[in-house]
Amino acid sequence: MGTSLSKLTEKPNIWPWLLLSPLGIYMLIFFVVPLADVAIMSFTEPRPTLANYTKVLTGALYQRVFLNTFLTAAFVTACCLLVGYPLAYLMAHSKPRTAMLILLLVTMSFWTSFLVRTYSWMVLLGNNGPLIAFLQMIGIESPPQLLFTRFSSTLAMIHILAPYMIMNIYSVMKKIDPALIRSAESLGAKGFSLFRHVYLPLTAPGIANGSVLVFVICLGFYVTPVLLGSPREQMIAGLIGHQIEEFLAFGLGSAMAMVLLAVTLVILTIYHRRFGLDKLWG
Amino acid sequence: MPARKTFLMPDRRTFLKTAGAAVSASLAAPYIARGQENVLYVNTWGGPWEEAAKAHLIDPFTAETGIQVKTVSPVSFAKLAQQVNTGIYEFDVTTLGAGELVRANDAGIIEELEAPYEGGLFENGIASHAFATVLAWRSDKYKEAPKTWADFWNMQKFPGGRSLQRYAARVLPIALLADGVAVKDLYPLDVDRAFASLDKIKPHIRVWWTAGAQSTQILRDGEVDMIGIWHGRFFEAEKARAPVAMTWDQGEIDRSYWVVAKDTPNLENAKKFVQFATSAKPLAGFCKAADYGPLNPASGEFVTAEEAKRMPTSPENYSRTFEQDMANFGADPAEIAERFEEWIAS
Fold this sequence. Notes:
The complex is a heterodimer.
Chain A: H1 2-10, H2 15-44, H3 51-58, H4 60-93, H5 96-111, H6 114-125, H7 130-137, H8 150-175, H9 178-186, H10 191-219, H11 223-228, H12 236-247, H13 250-275
Helix pairs in contact in A: 2-13, 3-4, 3-13, 4-5, 4-8, 4-10, 5-8, 6-8, 8-10, 10-13, 12-13
Chain B: H1 12-35, E1 39-43, H2 47-65, E2 68-72, H3 77-86, E3 93-97, H4 98-107, E4 121-122, E5 125-138, H5 149-153, E6 162-165, H6 168-178, H7 191-201, E7 205-209, H8 212-220, E8 226-230, H9 231-239, E9 244-260, H10 267-277, H11 280-290, E10 293-294, H12 305-308, H13 315-318, E11 322-323, H14 333-345
Parallel strand pairs in B: 1-2, 6-7, 6-8, 9-11
Antiparallel strand pairs in B: 3-9, 4-5, 5-8, 5-9, 5-10
Helix pairs in contact in B: 2-11, 6-7, 8-9
């Protein structure tokens, strides 16, 4: 046993690489090559130039949309955390039946196609929807417009992304050794102090994982803001799609995609330095 | 008894060879098929559009010529351009609006064609059918019917939510009409005046719709009270029994053109198809099924007076509408589109 283990660590074993090669080749052909193509196009379309990047980085429209995208993603992440943390706590620390029920509800929402979830928000928030009807019932003469606003698109994005946050925090909470809490209590920690100095730090990896996942996914959201949001508050993915489909501006669209990719990589790098990327998958 | 090789009882080696050949043949089939004589790939809008095209254009075409047609959807102008750059063809023919057609022809990504009927050729596209962007509204909301785009802009008289298509080339002429420009003076467009007019309606536009189905949905569900909508999409909302009404007055006509992708390997089939699809009877059938107006005058013979009422090209309706004039647009459509996008986002 001892010898075979040391053998494994001494000699480079080609088997894992061999087993990985189909996936590697697949990723090379269908991910790395197209991505490289996009990178090249961002410099060469319509002619060899840096103009695409100049435009993306200095144009007022693009700056505003990038800023809006990052602010929206940050806000959605914060809301997911506010909603997700207590729910994850409830799941981790209630009776198995209750925990099961909440878990079921969260995963059911997670498994439902996000297009379907987007459309259900259209129905719920629409002019003839139940929410407006309720507001009118309780005597609000002209209820505010809910659909096609920043409110409706943000709400839907929080709904769609919250499960990522909840599952990440839940898995970390579930692993916390109850003995740690008991010993903290025996040492005099209680109430908010116990939470602030013991429980919260223990769950920090879950918060970080969930936040990074939600933030990064939210950066690339396309359909939900287009269908539910206000025309003035676009997200970058919608603008990229529009550039390519409507204007055939492959170069400009590619440059926008590369900038988005670069910023996302920077965020992931910071996260990796701080927490380690391998923890992202539990 | 010596083992005999037969088709039914092949020995193992022959079987493997044959099976291998069959598998590789079926894997390679799409590529082989691309080079064959009797195939054509048609780009469609999918959904009801494709059903109508299948029933009236594609199936009769196959029956007449023996050419197998496969459909690819949705319509993508970007893909048409990329095909020529990459040399990989997903479709051979597609339909374009006038704005895209001019750009495609300038960019040299479509084949040169000949007119199949008199007046049928524009910028190497073959005029097929027309649709109109019409003024439609919720009849449960307004007692008095709006008549013009000026009424659409009139928030005092007709308060409520509005929607227009997120498409500069269609919206700018409408904005000018609303501002009091006469149809005959519309082109070339006074772009600055159009944007000034749009500034006035902007706060009331709840949705800049981007997909046809979306426009039907927001009118049908009452998310907006007045909308600039394609006439076929209006009929869908009407069919769903929503309280809606429309007018042909100041309806804005767009023409759709069949084009052939430049350098496609199925060039001859593609040319045959666009000729067939714009011939009198198939085109009439397609237009009736998909709620368009045929642009080939010979199709009129196959359209009844009742059916013509639903078409923007019938003489009575046509006289109340106006046409997009892409040849005399007055500005670079791409630049306008970009300005429009920036304007929407600001």
